[in-house]
Amino acid sequence: MGSATTQALAVGAEALDATQVDLDTARELFAASRAVAGSSALSGALADRAATPEARGALVARAFGSLSPVAQGLLQQTVAQRWSSGDDLVLGLEELAIRAAAKAEQSDVEAELFQVARIVSANPELELALGSRLGDDAKKGELIASLLQGRASEGTTLIVSSLVQQPRNRRVRAILSRAMKIAAAQRGRTVATVYTAVPLSAAQSERLAAALSKQYGGAVALNPVIDPTVVGGIRIQVADDVIDGSISSRLADLRQRLAG
Q1: Opening angle at CA 98, ends 94 and 104, nearest 5
Q2: Are the CB atoms for 48 and 54 separated by under 8 Å?
Q3: Which helix (DSSP H) or strand (DSSP E) does residue 195 occupy?
Q4: What InterPro entries does the record point to (predicted)?
Q5: How far from 20 is each of 37, 62, 68, 202, CA to CA, in Å?
């Protein structure tokens, strides 16, 4: 991801923070993202550095004139930025839509996305069906909406059902992992996946969250995973950081030292 895209994403996040949005806004942004992703001519024109921001904005008005003023305004601000490529612009629009849904939804979206990812990873046939290039993309969205009915909030269902309609050669679990991080970032949180052999108590979870929050300088959301291979202790992953205090890790280290 180029520096131009990184800066454009930051501007988009700031614009969203300053805008009052609801789930209908997020729904419109997802629709716009799918439309741009489905047309190389449109994505190329909207990301064309040779065109003025005004010209790109005029194209948004023509292509998405039926959207609400709020959604159009966010799209206008997004395409006015410099993007490293048309593909990066599509990812930027997708991120904007995810952030809008996370902002509008009151439930714990990142935790729900984590649970959906766990369901998908535990069902290879479901992941294969959702990630397949064959089949109707709209039907995939309907399938997810049906599966999550009563199990997840409207915002989370919107995010997942929208994303599976435009996998763009990405694995579903990777898409959901990215969405979870974006949703957490929108709420000013860092996500920590915690692996233990037995569930943590409420008090243990609170102490761990407090310790991680102090270490990472902000709120940390815990995603617990029960993993019998941990044996004892705990393994924590925060982005690329891994904190491994499990017995299985210490045993593996001991075996490696004895073998050496």
Answers
A1: 145
A2: no
A3: strand 189-196
A4: ATPase_OSCP/dsu
A5: 25, 24, 12, 34
Q: Could you identify the residue written with the tokens 């729904």?
A: 27
- Per the CB < 8 A criterion, the answer to whether 97 and 162 are in contact is yes
Query: Which alpha helices (DSSP H) does the chain contain, by range?
Result: 3-17, 23-37, 40-46, 53-63, 69-79, 86-104, 109-121, 124-131, 137-148, 154-163, 172-186, 202-216, 247-259
Listed residue (87, 112, 244) closest to 253, CA to CA: 244
CA distance 2 to 8: 10
Q: What residues form DSSP beta bridges with 205? A: none
C-alpha 117/C-alpha 144 separation (Å) is 12
pTM for the whole thing?
A: 0.85
Flag whether pLDDT at 237 surpasses 60. Answer: yes
To which residue do tokens 């994403």 refer?
A: 9
Q: Where are the domains of the chain?
A: 3-104, 109-185, 189-259
Written as six digits, the tokens of 45 are: 């024109």
Residue 8's contacts (CB-CB under 8 Å, 6 or more residues apart) are 78, 81, 82, 83, 88, 92
pLDDT in tens, 177-219: 999 999 999 999 888 999 998 898 999 999 999 999 998 888 8
The runs of H, that is alpha helices, within 122-152 are 124-131, 137-148
**Dist. CA 204–CA 46, nearest whole Å:** 49
| Tokens 């190389």 belong to residue | 40
Encode pLDDT of 132-177 as tens digits.
Answer: 777 788 899 999 999 999 999 999 999 999 999 988 888 898 999 9
Closest CA to 173 of 118, 234, 233, 222: 118
